[in-house]
Amino acid sequence: MRPMSLIAHTQNFSTLTKNQALTILSQNNGTSTVIPGVDARLLKFLLTAQINAIWNGQDRSAALGGQLGTGVYVGTNLTVNQILHQAFVNGVTNKKFTSADETYVLYLGASGEGQSASACKVQPPPPCVAPPQTASLGDFVWEDKNGNGIQDSGEPGIAGVTVKLLGSDGTTVLKTATTDANGKYLFSNLAAGTYYVQFTTPSGYTFTTANAGSDDGKDSDANATTGKTGAYTLTAGQTNLTVDAGLKATPPPSAPGTGTPGYWMNHPNAWPVAQITIGGKTYPRDQAISLMKAPTAGDVTYTMFQALVSAKLNGLVGNNTTCVDKTIADADAWMAKYPLASGVSGSSDAWKVGEPLYKTLDDYNNGRLCAPHRN
Ligand SMILES: [Ca+2]
Ligand SMILES: [Ca+2]
Ligand SMILES: [Ca+2]
Q1: 3-class DSSP state for residue 366?
Q2: Phi, psi of 254 (to 5 degrees)
Q3: Closest ligand (CA of 247)
Q4: Tens digits of per-residue pLDDT, 83-117?
């Protein structure tokens, strides 16, 4: 048989009738005519026209005498017979065309017809393009309760954490997600490429140690300071769910601890206030300190003054005072009644009232009541 003339036929294929297409195909069937360097688009057009012409509800092998496949073939240096044979072997062999808009496109790889053939259904006009394979990145933010940097059983996810997807430059924000009720997040529909992830700490949390242990699926990938991960390069269709972040609950601010009169009179810079009011009288810090240092000379008003100043300062720097609030108020009232340097002796009736107050304040200032002593 003589080689078919593609150029000559092409102009007519777009308007071929079914019978015309069948005729052309059967004319060339069984030949081993080489079509060297044939233009892929031209060949595709040619065969598309044929297929479109014969779709009409018929089994393609029946319609084409049991010898022909279906499809559009893209390749070079294929013989017509190779194309048709491979389509028959590798194509959708039992497929019937069932509707006017149904077209099957068979791609043959350049490396060898048939070996890399794949078929997919498309709406005309061809070409059929395989859906882009999209990659995903995820997927977990959890509370690292024991602080070991590893996702242990019983450590829960944390909801509501903001997670940013950064581009390959490590700074451009491409997407933002929020972890769900189970601490999960997912960036999907990603093109192949390089990405970074950045987690944001919710208030009350800090990041745990990154890259602990040897299992990347169970560790935290967020830099403990910046919350940013290293780079992840995804191939088409790849799903990477190992990009996680562990958070630790920030411990509540610890009370600074209580100081004794000795501490407060020797650490003026530790005073949280510039002046203090005792028994209704306000003393600048330095004056209060010198009065605390003054010899008591048997006057217990100085003793009470020292204890009460210290107890108030201990509360002002953040220590719990609930156990001495009433005592402080009572001691203030006592100091108002028996002012500093008013000469109250340790054996007086006044001190019978004042001494229990003083002892409670002294216990508090030494860390024996509701706040620890400072280190
Ligand atoms: Ca852990
Ligand atoms: Ca990981
Ligand atoms: Ca994970």
Answers
A1: coil
A2: -80, 145
A3: 1
A4: 444 343 333 333 333 333 233 333 322 222 222 22
How far does the centroid of ligand 1 lie from the alpha carbon of residue 197, in Å? 21
Q: How confident is the model at residue 132 (pLDDT cuts 50, 70, 90)?
A: low
Average pLDDT (349-373) is 96
Write out the H or E segment, with its range, that includes residue 306: helix 300-316
- Phi and psi (nearest 5°) for 338? -120, 85
Which ligand approaches the C-alpha of residue 216 most closely?
2
CB 238 within 8 A of CB 227: no
What domains lie within the chain, and their CATH numbers? 6-122 (no CATH), 135-249 (2.60.40.10), 261-365 (no CATH)
pTM of the model: 0.42
Distance 228 CA to ligand 3 centre (A): 16
- The CA 204 to ligand 3 mean position distance, Å, reads 23
Ligand nearest to the CA of 208: 1
**Closest listed residue to residue 89, CA positions, set 115, 112, 128:** 115
Determine the distance separating the centroid of ligand 2 and the alpha carbon of 132, expressed in angstroms. Answer: 27
- pLDDT score of 183: 97
Q: How far apart are CA 5 and CA 25, in angstroms?
A: 12
Tell me, in angstroms, the distance from the centre of ligand 3 to residue 131's CA: 27
Give the pLDDT of residue 133. Answer: 74
What ligand is nearest to the CA atom of residue 154? Answer: 1
Q: Give the H or E element holding residue 236.
A: none
